[in-house]
Hints:
The structure holds 2 protein chains of 2 kinds.
Chain A: H1 3-11, E1 14-16, H2 17-27, E2 32-35, H3 42-48, E3 54-56, H4 61-75, E4 79-83, H5 87-101, E5 106-112, H6 128-132, E6 138-141, H7 148-160, E7 166-172, H8 173-177, E8 179-181, H9 202-214, E9 218-222, H10 224-228, H11 232-242, E10 246-248, E11 263-266, H12 273-281, E12 284-288, H13 294-297, E13 308-313, E14 327-330, H14 333-341, H15 350-362, H16 376-386, E15 392-395, H17 399-406, H18 428-438, E16 444-449, H19 450-453, H20 460-465, E17 470-476, H21 481-490, H22 512-518, E18 523-526, H23 529-541, E19 546-551
Parallel strand pairs in A: 2-3, 2-4, 4-5, 5-7, 6-7, 9-10, 9-12, 10-11, 12-13, 13-14, 15-16, 16-17, 17-19, 18-19
Antiparallel strand pairs in A: 1-8
Helix pairs in contact in A: 2-3, 2-7, 4-5, 4-18, 11-14, 16-23
Chain B: E1 2-10, H1 15-25, E2 32-37, E3 43-51, H2 54-66, E4 70-75, E5 81-92, H3 95-107, E6 111-116, E7 119-126, H4 128-139, E8 143-148, E9 152-155, H5 158-161
Antiparallel strand pairs in B: 1-3, 1-4, 2-3, 5-7, 5-8, 5-9, 6-7
Amino acid sequence: MNAGKTLEVSCKKKIKGAEIVIRCLEKEGIKVIFAYPGGASMEFHQALCDSSIEVILPRHEQGGAFAAGGYARSTGNVGVCMATSGPGATNLISGIADAYMDSVPLVAITGQIPTKLIGKSAFQEVDVIGVTRPIVKHSYLVVDAKDLPRIIKEAFYIAQTGRPGPVVVDVPKDVQQQVVEMSDYPKKVKIRGYNPYPLASDEEIELIHKSIVECKKPCIYAGGGIISANASKELTEFARKYNMPVATTLMGIGAFPEDDPLSLKWLGMHGTVYANKAANECDLLLAFGVRFDDRVTGPVSTFAAHAKIVHVDIDRSEINKNKEANIGIVSDIKYVLRKLNEWSVKNDYNDWFESIKKWKKKFPLAYNKKSEKLLPQEAIEMIYRVSKGNAIIVPCVGQHQMWAAQYFTYTRPRQLLTSGGLGAMGFGFPTSIGAKVANPDKTVICISGDGSFQMNIQELGTVHAYEVDVKIVIMNNQHLGMVAQWEDRFYGSKRGNTVLADKRVLRPYPDFVTIAKGYLIPGKEVYKKSELEDAVREMLETPGSFLLDVHIEYQEHVLPMIPPGKSYKDTIIE
Amino acid sequence: MQHMISVLVENKFGVLARIAGLFCGRGYNIDSLTVSPTDDSGTSKMTIVTTGDAAVIEQIEKQLTKLIDVIKVSDLTGSKFIERELALIKVKTKTSSRAEIMQITEIFKGKIVNVYPDELTVEISGGGDKIDAFVSLMKHFGIIELARTGKVAIGRMSENTASC
């Protein structure tokens, strides 16, 4: 009686490699991908026509890569982007590098020219595996469609486990067209050189505990690792239970609620004076899920020079990489915090908190509130107030990014999505698209600059086509503000190609509201302080996307500022 | 200080490029690098000789371990290990010098693998120092060409380099 068995075998029909990839994505639970077709990836798009997966067509592959990153940053789930070979793939590079620097789970699938043409400098051929090698967690060149289920499974597993990161899967066109029987999508992954979940030993936990018992001036320095590990709840419990101040990194913003009295907001070059003072003058620095980035530490030898340093990170290579730790522990941070929360040493640290209180009073984040001009800091505060502090904020890169990080009070993880490591201009707008697609019920506000916005302005088309309700605020100062600020501070205000204004026209250039109109997106310009509140309200209350062009002074500087290469003692306050 | 690092890797497309790229991208030196098959066709062994202070070597070891295709990294320096290198040396010879060269080769337990009237090719293997010593002796006669494999090494204790 073999009839049943025969039937089962013949039911497992043969399909194309491209279709296998799409079936695997479905099995992986992917609901949406950001994909731009081309000669070497159209097989995928044909297969996607018969899939439940929604395809969002960005207007530039870079927009697609950032949008996938935004999807991932705002949810913690893997974002997926896709492009064709050659130029399609090279356009993804900034998005992949950004995901690498900020540990964002991303899978980038690229079409490749047919295997028999590889190495022949064929049309639209680029060695994508070679080009992306230094900016990926891992990558695959697929040479047999039969390997696809295993490779796709591994790619998603690697991207989201341990320290997350981008994985590239490069699939030649003949492999996409290869017709094979699809094997079952693997349930488990086994990679012998990869242990993504190291856990601290009891002895190590004991060591941390002992340091806490001995300290008089503790400070928690919490980074993006807390957010990646979904450990904000545990961190908050830990800080409150042990009564310790918390300074986050830029990437760690939201890991601890900034409205908590223990919050010092964030530290680093443009962080608060009190966060930098606390981190540098403490006697115990609990560095959790951080990497002692140079924008945080300045010269590492002077950073937290008198503190005992406890460094916990899931990535072993981060321990002692930039700053030597007294106690270095390779572990999932959530596990460590849970273990620590089983006990508690509660001290009042009266003297220490007294100092912090003084610093907070003496050096608050401040700007000239009496100014008659419309200042960027005030605009950010207004957005915060009118949106009731609930929105997901996605800045691009530059001065406005720092102001957006300073003048909002973030209370939950994944509320601020920012390009911290790569610092990629053009990041914000497409990232906000990915964030909104992943969080349809939340307000998503992209805060951009007139420089940054023009780097991915074409995504206005995507926003309109897919009715992605993103609010866009342009902090328009007609300059590349951050570089201009450095020119003012360190180069005698000599403008080296940092002016975007056009002297031949009598208005700010370009006219963003008119551009938005061309894409059928409503917008408004604000010049005066008195118009600001109503305009922000109109933006938030108008259904669908909206562009608000806010004209601000270019003379404003982001402060405080620790000059590059200097320590916290050299902070510029005005 | 020079370190010898033994790396067990998946025998997959592009692994050498990942490792070489890591050294180049992070500014580490490679003094020599060998890649060879192991008893398991799924893995290869790389022996990398590199120079750096303790912090650099620590990072090299950690960064290598972080690569998905790397199974095990062992820094052999400081533990007991056996290292060998093979060299082929083509030396100018005259009737008057041939006997002396053959004698030295014998002392170094080398082999003459090719003979022409005016040149000899010697095969010699051993630790790096031994080869250096032999090469410097041959310089006196005139080296026409020299090819060295780079070092391979294995720990004396099984845990040092064993596959996991």
